[in-house]
Amino acid sequence: IVIGIMEGAxxxxxxxxxxxxxxxxxxxxxxxxxxxxxLQQLGVKFHGFRNEQSAAYAIGAxxxxxxxxxxxxxxxxxxxxxxxxxxxNAQTNNWPMLLLSAVxxxxxxxxxxxxxxxxxxxxxxxxxxxARVEHLNRFGxxxxxxxxxAKYGKPGPVYIEIPADVLKQKMENPTFFPLIDAxxxxxxxxxxxxxxxxxxxxxxxxxxxxxxxxxxxxAEDGLNRLLDQWKIPFLSSGMSKGIISDASPYxxxxxxxxxxxxxxxxVTLGQDLNWLYSFGETPxxxxxxxxxxxxxxxxxxxxxxxxxxxxxxxxxxxxDALEKAQxxxxxxxxxxxxxxSKKEQNEKSxxxxxxxxxxxxxxxxxxxxxxxxxxxxxxxxxEGANTLDIGRIILPTISARSRLDSGDDxx
Length: 411
Hints:
With about 400 residues, the chain is α/β, with parallel strands linked by helices. The chain has helices at about 10-20, 35-40, 50-65, 80, 85-95, 120-125, 140-150, 165, 190-200, 215, 220-230, 255-260, 315-325, 335-355, 365-370, 385-395, and strands at about 5, 25, 45-50, 70-75, 95-105, 130, 155-165, 170, 205-210, 235, 265-270, 290-295, 310. The strands form 3 sheets. It has a 6-stranded parallel β-sheet with strand order 3-2-4-5-7-6, sandwiched between helices. The relative contact order is 0.11.
């Protein structure tokens, strides 16, 4: 596409829109205000926030929900530095996001210019890519590179900064880069699928643990079909809740401790053995269990424990292959009987705690009262250890990508 002379802010806005950025959060000010105006004129939604930290957290969540990087727009100095915790959150959760910030004019670097700070250095530990736009005609290159890296492989945050003088430049007959391609799918090795099926079929006490990357990769429909085929007990935690409804008969959330402690084969699907699962170590797990790790992130393979079987591929392709293998229903009735007995015991105890109406109110009493008033299509965002831990037990999640717990780890 070739157009006549274009102002810098309009050129930047056009590039963002052409990369399918549909949501921009932030706080405007000199020199990025014209970018926000240009975006709105192009039909891109800009939402002003009271603090850049909140904007950064929110845009990371938007990237997770859309499976595409959205943009946080800030001014230089404190404006950009307020976003660091949001970058860390997106990095930890593997959420794609773009941070676009202004920086002092190029010829004033190191002179102590207004709000000058080491923004690139501050962002570097938390982003997959960072760049300073040295000339307006280089913005398209940096943007497409950043967007590709934010989505490809392990999703994550990226950072671009634009000096104020570069934004004042004009482009004559600007050229725009095409929309980046969707990340390529990786198919599993058939031999790894066969090994996984053999180990799972032979298990007497198998346990499936589901990670939230199943939701990010939009693989929940296939997983629910696979679960109906296998009829295997499963657990999910934090933001992975809802990939399979909490109301599923295969959920053993209320017998979590027993399920993990006595399993003989642990199957993880897009879930790292991190702090959420006690790093896969005793005394929460048996010392001799086997681990079938199904994972799309190559950096997570064999993390914290050597996996007995590894299936590395895009999770939807892994699930398709496992479903087509026709393992059938697992013969684990004795294991189910034990888990069901523990579920009933723990659910009775939970019911008693929820009926507590003493003042001051307990977490259980509060959540029991508000549970029936939460719409089924609501997003639940929790903060604080007790709120997170107890809320996950009492507040049901029935659909994928509807829980956005703060400080959680995607994997």
